[in-house]
Amino acid sequence: MVASTSTIPLLIWSFFNQSQNALINHFNGPARSVEEMEEENTIVVNEESHTTTKLDVTLMKSYVVAVVSALSVTFGLSSYIQSHYIGEEATQLIHFISFPSAVIASSLNCYIVRQPEIDVGVPLLNEHMENVLPGETSSLAAKRGVLFTTSTRAVLQMPTYFIPPLLLETDLTPLKDYITVENPSLTVPITTFLLLISFGIGLPMTVALFPQMARIGTEDVEERYQNLGYDEFYYNKGL
Fold first, then answer.
1. N or C: less crowded end of the chain, CB within 10 Å?
2. 150 touches 110 (CB < 8 A)
3. Is 233 helix (H, G, I), strand (E, B) or coil?
4. What tens digit of pLDDT does each residue of 185-196 get?
5. Extended beta strands in the chain, E state
6. Is the distance from CB of 185 to CB of 224 less than 8 angstroms?
7. Hey, is 239 helix, strand or coil?
8. Domain for residue 189, yes or no?
9. Contact (Cβ atoms closer than 8 angstroms) between residue 148 and residue 114
10. Residue 1 falls within a domain, yes or no?
11. What's the pTM?
């Protein structure tokens, strides 16, 4: 996506990017028991008497919304740039189109996949990681966890979509002339290397913004948790 300089490649790679993200978001939710997963996976029968599951519906909904949003933003921005700019200026601007499309699509993707956690809730734990009310869950803590995780998905796009184009398409470094003039065949290898470095730095930093075992104050959860003698609780927000 970062190396693409025209609309069609941008659309193709946006499609693959969001297809992968739907699975990543689903499998990085908070750990659940077998009983919880069986309840979430309750069978639903549609009008044609075919069977499907809530999990299938959620994944498909997330997938469709994320891909459509990514392709819409990508196509709209690309069309605007190509109609208002020409030559090298247009090429440089197109390199940055992937960022807003990825931010919007990845955030929507994450929120929709993880949204069922808000309905189910997450257990609240004490400082010893023990469930303070066995069998009970907090939807307010789950909502905060989903929103925090969605925020990290947006922030994560910054290093991966800004650093490589900034180094390759501006005069901040000699890489631009080195690739475009002397070694155009190295565009993909060098871009890939810079992406790996940017992602390797950005991923742990963004994940660390909100720890997996998060804290929440007593005043921010349901009333039934507020008179148990605790000042704060812990909960697993997922990654």
1. C
2. yes
3. strand
4. 888 888 888 889
5. 43-45, 51-53, 213-217, 232-236
6. no
7. coil
8. yes
9. no
10. no
11. 0.71
